[in-house]
Design brief:
two-stranded antiparallel sheet, 181 residues, 4-stranded parallel sheet, 6 strands, alpha/beta
Amino acid sequence: MARYILGFKQALDKIWPKIEKTIINCKSKRDVYFTGHSLGGAMATLAAVRCSRLHNTPQPSGLYTFGSPKVGNRAFASFAKELCIPGARWVNNVDIVTRVPFWPYVHIGAYQYMNHDGWMKKFTPIQMVWDRIKGALIGIKYGKINYFVNHGSEKYVKNIKKNLESQNNLFNKLNKQYNKN
């Protein structure tokens, strides 16, 4: 049976009437994306799933979360996957919030990992463990607990900007090379 954290649903229920009204009013004019950080990411996940199931709201165009806790169990994740909501979830190195609640809860969405330097890279599981250890040790070196520091929304914004600027620079270099030929 699909289960999710009741507190996340209750938080969403408080604001859902305004969200639903807004979505219905712009249904034919715009794509609808759900996004959020931390509790907002959990609420965005439930809102996207809810919106997908209602007949008076449009299918979500995307779900993008940052530092979100786990929202539901495996049955909930399977159900959400069947709804085919495109999206991703970002995790900043040793962000503790992305690890809770523990079993039996799991994440949904394509995993985007930012290493201890803030770069988004593909890692093997062993590389990721080593990178998380490095991130924790760097925090200790500077007298910080990176499990909490890495959760701040400003860290997510900074790291995503850094990666976008790097991609734009690469694109511009490739474009210049192409135009020379």
